[in-house]
Amino acid sequence: MAFEQVCDINDIIPGTGVCALVNGQQVAVFRPSEEEQVFAISNMDPFARSNVLSRGLIAEHKGDLWVASPLKKQRFNLETGACIEDERFNVKSYQARVNNGIVEISA
């Protein structure tokens, strides 16, 4: 599996997300804490049909990390892209890692 470098880990403030362009697709990349752990899902909110998920709020629910869309507040799992409110609207998830301080997303 090929990975594409998107940014330095320190470019993402802990507890937030950023948007990266990976193979022409907008990908929301999240850094939930100070640790060098990242998650990546599609940036497209399927309810609002807008590329805004990277601006959502990260929350924990039943031990899993989720992002709430800034528009209509639906929650998406950061590992799987599953939607809590309606599984018909799951989003694509991407494998993400930090390699020598650089965030990489599966291309």
TrEMBL record:
Residues 4-105 form the Rieske domain. InterPro entries: NirD, Rieske-like_NirD, Rieske_2Fe-2S, Rieske_2Fe-2S_sf. Keywords: 2Fe-2S, Cytoplasm, Iron, Iron-sulfur, Metal-binding, NAD, Nitrate assimilation, Oxidoreductase. It is found in: Cytoplasm. Its main location: cytoplasm. It catalyses: NH4(+) + 3 NAD(+) + 2 H2O = nitrite + 3 NADH + 5 H(+). One of its GO terms (cellular component) is cytoplasm. PROSITE patterns: NIRD, RIESKE. One of its GO terms (biological process) is nitrate assimilation. Its EC number is 1.7.1.15. It is an enzyme of class 1 (oxidoreductase). Gene3D superfamilies: Rieske [2Fe-2S] iron-sulphur domain (2.102.10.10). Associates with NirB. Required for activity of the reductase. NCBIfam families: nirD_assim_sml, PRK09511.1. This is Nitrite reductase (NADH) small subunit. It comes from Vibrio navarrensis.
